[in-house]
Amino acid sequence: QHTAVASLLELINHSQSLALVIQDKHRRYQSSDCNPLSGRMQMVTMPPIYPALLHAMEESTDFYQRVAHVLWSQLDTERREHHVSCVDLFYRLHCLAPTTSICEDIICQALLHKDKCQAVRLEALHRFTVLWHLTREIQTNRTMSVSRSFDSLCVVVNSLSSADGSISAAAQCWLVRALSLNDVLRILEPILLFLLHPSTQRRSIHIIKQNLTANLKVLSSRCRSSTKGSADALAADISTLNVLNVVDREALWAELDSKPTNQPDSLVASRSESEETEEEEDKGEEADSEHTESADTSCAQASTENSSSGSAPLTSEDGSLVNGLQRVESERTQASDSLSSEDEDDLELEAIARSRLLKQEREKREAIDSLFRHMLLYPAAGGWRHLLQGLSLLDSLFRSSAECPLVEALSSTSLDTSSAAHLNMVSNLLQRHQQAQEGKSFYGGLLSPSSFPSAPPSLLIELLVSLCLQFLRSHYPSYLSPTPLDLQGNREVQVKSVTVLTRIVNQLCCTAREKEGSNLESIRKILSCCKLQQYALLSLSASMYASQKGADKEPCKNTEEELGGPSEESLVNLGAARGQEQYPLQIELLKLLHALIVLEYHVWPGGVVSAGQAVEPREASTLSTPLAREWQTAVLFQQSIKAAQYVHSHPITAQGMFVSAAARALQPQYGYAMHPHWVSLLCSSLPYLGRSLGIIVTPFISQVCRNLDDLVKLHEHDGGKTNQFSGKRENIAPDYPLTLLEGLTAITHYCLLDNKKSLVSSDAVDVRNARNAVIEALPSMLSSMASLWGVVMKEEVKRRASDSPQMSRHTSTSVYFKSNKILRQRILEFLLPLTRPHGVQLMASLGVVWSHRKSKRKHKNQVLPVASEPRMTIVELVKSLHTMQTETILHLVKEVVKKPHQIKGEQKSTLVDIPMLQFSYAYIQIPAQALQENVAALLSLLRDSVQLNLAPPGHFLLLILNDFVNRLPNLDSKKDTKDLQQEVTQRILEAVGGIAGSSLEQTSWLSRSLEVKVQSQVCQEADDLDILAPLLDMVYQSDEKEKAVPLISRLMYYVFPYLKNHAYNIPSFEAGAQLLSSLSGYAYTKRAWKKEVFELFMDPLFFTMNSWKSIVDHLLTHEKTMFKDLMMQSSSLKLFSSAEQKPMLLKRQAFAMFSGELDQYHLYLPLIQRLTETLRMNPTPAISAQMFLMFRVLLLRISSQHLTSLWPIMVTELIRTFTRLEKALQAEKDGSLAKVVRGALDKNGPVNFSQADLDMYLSACKFLDTSLAFPPERMPLFQYRWAFVPEVDESRYSGPETTLIEGEEGCTPHVVRVLERIEQRHRMINGLSEESSTEHLEFPLLTQRSLTSITQLLPFLRTLCCSFKGPPPSSQTPPHLPVADYPAASSHTVLQRLEVIIEEEFLDTMDS
């Protein structure tokens, strides 16, 4: 049977060969004008089988299929002795068959059994393996009319990734064996035909840009015609690629030899082609183009006219700019001879500004275009299917060869066409792609290899890497109109090509790691020749730019014309949506970059890719010393890290493009979906970053912290319901904060902790520099941790509330903080390892965070500032660190306060000493038992802190000792603890005194007296000083009080100058008065302040000082005889001899009684009575006014039962004053009208009153007002009220005995008489009538401090006249009279008002 088949195949082969010869002769004869063999005898060998019969066998019979099926079935395991002849016959049949699909279909149908039968598929794999190995020699040695390969190999390669383990294992065994026998070329040949298909040709973008200006319309029309009707043909899904698709080699040869008319050969088109294309367009398009051209022309003319008449043209060259200015100037000069110099200057400035703006636009465009200059453009759409199929097969190959045999075979095999004739097509296609990329025609004849600038890759691995990079760089041009399926297909090709590159690089890493630094020159050559790192970085940068740029931001045409034509960016079609569609490519590029970083580390351990490129040969000889070489390396590194373009002499980690991309990667506009992948890249690449470690991780850490803070803010504002991170809508993974936190932990721990487990050794200098950079970023990280911890605390509170019966469910709404326990654990995992080696830096950073989290509102009446909720979150976070006990934390705080320069960088000016003390105060708010155990540490912190040169607020904040002492009143009475406590207190007082003395100066050179400097005073809250006296009382026990007096004396030595001079230091004066008020409350301190306080009390300016009521009270209380001595001096009037000083003495006496308590001085009433009688002997208006003030104080400070003896004196003095006022208002009988008219011109009204008289009358009225307003329960009904105010309305009384005895006068109250005289004189002059009042009044009525006219008492007097009369009869309608409520509804309110009014009257203004 085999002999028969062999004979028949030999006859067919011979017949086909003779038929081809005859056909060739016939074609040559027909092409020539005359027959060259005419007249000669010819011998023709006839084929054994005529061509017609051969044709009939091919078209009308199934001969080839039956023979192929028989031969394939004989390759089973039972007939191994026939395998060689079967394979020989099967291969000959495959080469002689009319199409390759005859034998291929039988193989593929068995490999891809329709029922997925495992046994059939395994048997088919075995038979293919036999066929594969036995055709190795036959395929290379046998000469046939047609030499063919088995493209069913693609099905076998695809089986490598089969889900059936037995199928993939069998295919794996075949692959390993084939690679060991150097069959890598045979395996790649059909795959390369897919990758080099003519439909995948591409051209460089700079070639297209050069020819685009003149031929844009031609390209547009051709591309439209080539893509018409293709949308229906591209309906298949990308994922359903047919592995049975093979490349027809015979048809492909025929296509390459001829020049197709339907394919654009070159971007350079002739004018005739352009005209023909324009003629083919319809009339509508012609009209539209004409309209557009006319519109463009008119716009251009208009812009030219505007620029020539109004402003200078937009040019970039300095010369043309100057010429433009000169031309504009000459035209304007001809139009108007009066062109001013100001107009010239404005015109020149405008031109300079526009030139600068144009320069900035050019620089910006240059930076953007540099990201697109590496790209290649497809001339037509549709070739992505071949590429995707070939790349998928390559991916299966590399994924299945995990032990790197494929890469090793590729690295040692070249594309040698001399050994295998069937590789000629691969070489031919490779050359055609190269010449098409350079702008030449893909079809037709080949150009000579010398015409190309670079030689084609020699090794197979270089070829595959170059092809994958070309697919990565290839895009559709913007003038094409590809379908969405085409765009998606090309993106899939780019992603798959990067995946293949990543597998190649990973296997190269394994090879480099095994060789351990030797024989790595081949890998270095691959990286340097293929420019793998450069194109990977450029592709990543371009993809990031495309993803963050909106689709609506197209370049402006006018700007393109001004800047010199279209940009590279405008030539690339990136699709309608440039955002999330770029993410798959970026994800794979990040994987590739990580593999390249690791590979560079193993290939170039020194970090420099090619030292020969970095240093010139003549310069290399001078770098003989290690220091010079290190300096040169550092300079080159700085140049590379700052470069905007790729630098060929440095690894990826030292490239400015990579550093810039890493710094911007986590910004919201680049997509939150990419952030986890960037975090993974940085974390896995940390050991390989080298010098760039600190430079890369610092901005990365800052951006992570900003993103975490934004998440927390979003959670606080709306609970995470809406996405407000960026303008575009994008879903963010729920575990996003955990991803950032884990990445931050990995980076921080690698830089700050010793990584002994790391398999990669790092330079100590690089790690130290990175450690310093990360320590500078610790405040930002701690701030983010505190914010996250605040979320954890709030969520725990909500959870506990939800567990209560009142709450039915948890109210948390944030999707990002649902996993509360895991978040808490991650925060602690970040902080706990840092507490021991970097505790001081951690606490210093915490101080910076504390200072930035200030409370929005100030809490007054608080000795120490109340920690806000954000600050308390910091405290709770520190308390959760179980590795840091209270003693350890206090020790770290002390170290930070002693050396607060731990924080540098952006926080360099931030002082953390005071924030640390504030934190320590908030932290020690722990149970008393825990505080008791750390007394020594706390006192040591205070003692060491007070010795430092802290800012003034720091010393007052050191008074946290007060809180400490008050919370532990029963402190252990050990002598060392007590001595340490008193020592701290003493140093605190010395520090406070030093602060007070910093604003004082000596009055003279030899004098020890001090005075306040004339400068602005800055004083802390006076409330901070309240704690000093209680603190001293607690620290110094009853038998140790005398020890505190010298301390207080030294402190008051600096305080009294502020109390003596308060003209321009009001804040300091108030603080000193507050301190003195607190200290004077303790009797044992009187020796430190008694003398000075009495001098201040007797000072003429005493009543210009506020807040002295308690001080005077303490002075008179602690000195039992002080009040009596003061009364005796006042009675003798020896101290005050002048008339002006006597009223002030009386005012001081009244203030002394006012400062005391109720009935505190009732035993001294005889002295007070003697004093009043003495003053009544020669009264003046000023004395009378102060006497009435004293009477009012007596009403408040002496009970009614003790005032019985004084009431006659007080009433008598009040009657005498009202009588004096009546006489002053009584006009003389003779010439009264003239006197009144003359008096009307006076400011005081009808009668001329001095200011002293007015003050006296006001004081008398206030005394009457106070007497009437006093509550009945405090003082019985004012018995003498009838003498001053009317109590009965006589006009409405109709009872008996209403007539008076003839000759008698009625008893009219003083208030009525005074009111009548004032109203009479007032109406005579001003002609005013009484006005009724509906205002609600209540006692006391008089609140004004002074009078300018006696008429200002009219409302008061009228109210008194109407308030105490009985109710009118019901038949009469009551007029609207000013009536005050008596008695008042609240006695307590009346007394409080009287206290406030009298206290305010003691205080004089500074100008008085």
Give a verbal description of the structure.
- A 4-stranded mixed sheet has the order 1-2-3-4. A two-stranded antiparallel sheet has the order 5-6. A two-stranded parallel sheet has the order 7-8.
- It is elongated.
- Among the domains are: 148 residues, no CATH class; 230 residues.
- The chain is built from 59 helices and 8 strands.
- By secondary structure, it is an all-alpha fold.
- 35% of the residues are buried.
Work out the number of β strands: 8
Report the β-strand fraction as a percent range: under 5%
Biggest sheet, open or closed, and with what strands and sense?
Answer: 4 strands, mixed
- Output the radius of gyration: 53 Å
Per the principal axes of the C-alpha atoms, what is the gross shape? elongated
First-last Cα distance? 141 Å
Q: Which structural class do the helices and strands define?
A: mainly alpha
Q: Specify the number of helices.
A: 59
Mean pLDDT: 75
Low-pLDDT stretches: 216-241, 261-339, 551-559, 610-621, 1228-1246, 1298-1304, 1327-1332, 1368-1374
Helix content: 55-70%
* Strand arrangement, major sheet: 1-2-3-4
GO biological process, one term: Golgi to endosome transport
Domain DOP1-like TPR: 370-754
GO cellular component, one term: cytosol
Protein name: DOP1 leucine zipper like protein B
Short description:
Residues 970-1361 form the DOP1-like C-terminal domain. By secondary structure, the protein is mainly alpha-helical. Among the domains are: 2-149, no CATH class; 1161-1292 and 1305-1402.
